[in-house]
Structure formats: structure tokens, C-alpha cells
Design a protein that fits this description.
Elements: H1 3-34, E1 36-41, E2 49-51, E3 54-56, H2 58-69, E4 73-78, H3 82-91, E5 96-102, H4 105-108, E6 112-113, E7 118-127, H5 133-137, H6 143-167, H7 179-194, H8 207-238, E8 255-259, H9 263-270, E9 274-278, H10 281-289, E10 295-299, H11 300-309, E11 315-317, E12 322-331, H12 336-351, H13 353-362
Parallel strand pairs: 1-4, 1-5, 8-9, 8-10
Antiparallel strand pairs: 2-3, 5-12, 6-12, 7-10, 7-11, 7-12
């Protein structure tokens, strides 16, 4: 058999094998998408809304459109929280997870995500109320103020010692030779000098003593005005709505309710807040009303939607937004649905369908 004939036969065998493999793969893919998919629904309103036996919401409507366009049949499995649904997705008990699932690098190592169909962010829900007496004096009971007091006493002791050293020989009646009495009188002289009381009972008579006293006058004016301004500012702020938490910097040493296994857990810890885990927003709302937590950190669109359905003048949503994040549909690793549905999601976005669905639930001005 000649070489060209051998080459031709080999080429035909290879071509036949590739054609068979592609037909087999297509058959496998087709059998997968044609099966009854197990779809988990998890998350809060307005993304997943249960109405008796019917489901609706932003995530549900977008998923229904995807399933309809691809002729997918599925059975819904509801979940109380997203973390449990993600566990079942990893174990192969689900084919798709529908809901406000935040796309994070940590989760992306465990499961596949679709293109983001919604851009969200974290925000802070807190109480509005008149400050208590403790709230008003709390700024004065801080470790920083205690440090400042110790520093002030140390400086006062140094000035008193310098005055005693300069005056003890020339004015022993005002600054006795005994160190304790002499330094104490020197500190008293520094205090009346700083406060401009000027009783005149103790005053330096030597040149060195007057240089020390004059230098202290200049330093004490700057020190006293800075301290008084700081205290006055703290007391003024404490007279405002102390219970309102408008930024993450106010989390320190306060109990903050966050959704379990969500990005907000690490976010609150980064700002030294004490994490209180909740399963849903309604639970955080109750804790906040009962004053068991100082604030609730949750996804902003869910909070806004909840407050529209449950108006409450005692609560306020901060204007600040943190951790911009996308919501996507979740699949097991290497699922063929991921790439297939991503194309349709991009088409929905280009055609404006996603914007229409979001606007129907959140309004055009509130939609991010």
C-alpha cells in the first residue's frame, strides 16, 4: 500500500472519530439541557418573592425568560438561605441557583457564575432617636481622652519641676527646698498660669523662672484651646442623633447584624464591629427595633424595598454605599449551562430587558 493511500485512510478514520465524538458530545449536552433541571430559589425580596404557590421577583423573572428562550424545564426547590443552597449546588443536588447571589472570588472557586444581571452594594440601616445621658457624656469617657489627661499631667509635672529648680534658691517661701512641696507649688503655678486665673500667690522672680513661665503660657494657650475645641465638638456631636450610624467608621465595638456567609461579615469585622449573624433581613429589622443591635448591614436594594413595604420613621437608611457587587445565577463547576445562558443574559442587557424588569420592581430612579 502506497503512502498516499495510507494517509487517506488515516485521515478518514480520524475524521470519522471526530464526527462521532462531536455527535456524542452534542447528544450528551442535549440530554442534559432537556432534562428536568433542579433549580434552587433563595434570597430576599424583591429578587425572590413567594406569593402562595407562585414565584416572582427580579431574579425569578430573568431566570424564567432564560428558561423559556432555551426551552428548559425545571423544578423549583426553595431555600431559606443562600449558603445552604450553595452547599447543595456544590454537592450536585442542584443544577442552578436563582437569587441575589453575590459574585465573589471566594465563591467562584467553588461554583460557576453567570454574567452579573444586577449591580448592588452594601448599606447601613440604623435607628433614629434622641440620645441618652450616657450618649451625651460618652465622648468624655474614651481611652483617647485618658491618654491626653496623662500626657497633660506629665507636662504639668515637667513645668512644675523646671519652675522649682529655677526658683527654689531665690524664692524658697514660694518654692520650698523639699522636692514634693516645691514641685507641687510649681505645678500649681503652671495651672494658674495656663488658666489665666492669676491669683498672685505664686509667681516666678528669677529670669530663668520667668522664661519657663512665659514659654508655658504660649504652649498652654495652644494646648488648652485645642483641648477645649475637641471637647466642645464631641459634646456637640453627642447632642445630635447619636443612634444614627451613617458610616462604617462608627461600627467600632457595636453590634451589627449581617447576613450569614455574606460579604458583609468580613466588611463589619474590618471596621471592628461585633458581628451578629441573621438568616434574613426581617430578623435584623426586629433586632434593630428591639435595640439588640446598633445597625443592620445588608444589600441596599433589599433594604429600600423592605422599607417601602414596611414604612418606619424610627429607622433610617444611610446614603453611603460600600462593596459594589454583582448578582449572578450560580451553577456547579464546569456546567454547560453557564456559557449557554451567558450569551442570552448579554442579549437581554443589550436589548434593555434587564433594565425594564429591574425598573418594574425598584423604579427608574432607585435602580442602580
Amino acid at each position: 500500500m502506497t503512502i498516499p493511500i495510507k494517509f487517506s485512510i488515516t485521515f478518514l478514520i480520524l475524521l470519522t472519530s471526530l464526527n462521532f465524538y462531536s455527535q456524542e458530545t452534542a447528544s450528551l449536552d442535549d440530554s442534559f439541557v432537556k432534562k428536568d433541571l433542579k433549580v434552587g430559589y433563595a434570597g430576599s425580596e424583591p429578587f425572590v418573592v413567594k406569593n402562595q404557590n407562585d414565584w416572582s421577583g427580579i431574579s425569578v423573572e430573568i431566570w424564567h425568560s432564560l428558561a423559556k428562550d432555551n426551552d428548559l424545564s425545571y423544578t423549583v426547590f426553595p431555600y431559606n438561605n443562600i449558603s445552604k443552597a450553595i452547599d447543595d449546588l456544590q454537592k450536585g443536588n442542584l443544577d442552578v441557583l436563582v437569587g441575589p447571589v453575590s459574585i465573589t472570588s471566594e465563591r467562584a472557586e467553588l461554583i460557576d457564575f453567570s454574567q452579573p444581571y444586577f449591580q448592588s452594594s452594601l448599606s447601613i440601616l440604623s435607628r433614629v432617636g434622641a440620645p441618652t445621658i450616657f450618649d451625651r457624656v460618652a465622648p468624655l469617657l474614651t481611652i483617647d481622652l485618658l491618654y491626653a489627661l496623662f500626657i497633660f499631667l506629665f507636662i504639668l509635672g515637667c513645668v512644675g519641676t523646671l519652675l522649682w529648680l529655677a526658683e527654689r534658691k531665690a524664692s524658697p517661701d514660694q518654692f520650698p527646698h523639699e522636692p514634693i512641696k516645691g514641685i507641687a507649688n510649681g505645678m500649681w503655678c503652671a495651672i494658674v498660669t495656663m488658666s489665666t486665673t492669676g491669683y498672685g500667690d505664686i509667681a516666678p522672680v528669677t529670669l530663668m523662672g520667668r522664661i519657663v513661665a512665659g514659654s508655658w503660657m504660649i504652649i498652654s494657650i495652644l494646648f488648652a484651646t485645642t483641648m477645649v475645641a475637641g471637647i466642645a465638638s464631641s459634646l456637640t456631636l453627642s447632642g445630635l442623633d447619636k443612634t444614627v450610624i451613617s458610616s462604617a467608621e462608627q461600627f467600632q465595638n457595636r453590634k451589627i447584624a449581617v447576613l450569614i456567609d455574606s460579604p458583609s461579615v468580613d466588611f463589619v469585622k474590618d471596621y471592628s464591629g461585633t458581628v451578629v449573624l441573621i438568616d434574613k433581613l426581617e430578623q435584623g429589622y426586629k433586632l434593630l427595633r428591639d435595640k439588640e443591635v446598633a445597625a443592620v448591614v445588608f444589600d441596599r436594594p433589599q433594604i429600600k424595598y423592605f422599607l417601602e413595604k414596611h414604612p418606619d420613621d424610627s429607622l433610617i437608611l444611610s446614603d453611603t454605599e460600600y462593596h459594589k457587587q454583582g448578582y449572578g445565577f450560580a451553577f456547579p463547576l464546569n456546567s454547560i449551562l453557564t456559557s449557554m445562558l451567558n450569551v442570552d443574559l448579554l442579549r437581554f442587557k443589550e436589548e434593555g430587558m434587564l433594565k425594564v424588569i429591574e425598573s418594574n420592581w425598584l423604579g427608574t430612579e432607585k435602580n442602580k
